What does this fold into?
Amino acid sequence: MGLLLPGCALHGAGRRRVDVIALSDRYTSAYKRRDWAAVDSLIGDDYVGTGVGMVWNRDSLRLEFPQIRLIAYERRSALVTPLTPDIVLLSEDGFLNETVAGQEISGSYRFTTVWARRAGTWRLVFEQEVPVPKTQSEPSKVPHD
It folds into this structure.
């Protein structure tokens, strides 16, 4: 069973759950700072990412990374599900303000990530980004941080 974090309240979450949320925050922060070394330190050698019509790995992400500009991200909810003692699934909904190669891709997204602990260190091994259709009550952008 997972831990639902509406509004991101951690309500007595176990250590592993808090660690995965903190890792996700570090990953997001590295993107916002445009810090490839920090991103690279968080992803596994076998990392795979997917999005609508896209699949990437560590090498293709490294090549694309200079074109990505994450301005802001607001997590709206998160569900942490331990799959094994060393593998955790994190599903989160959020709003991002981002461009890739100058193209605006801001909006609401559902992110699914899998974190695996290897030799005592947690690494991101899988992520999927799926845009969520815009509703009328949704803002067009989150403020700059």
The chain has one domain: 3-131. Residues 1-13 have pLDDT under 50 and may be disordered. The longest strand covers residues 68-84. Helices lie at 15-33, 36-42, 58-64.
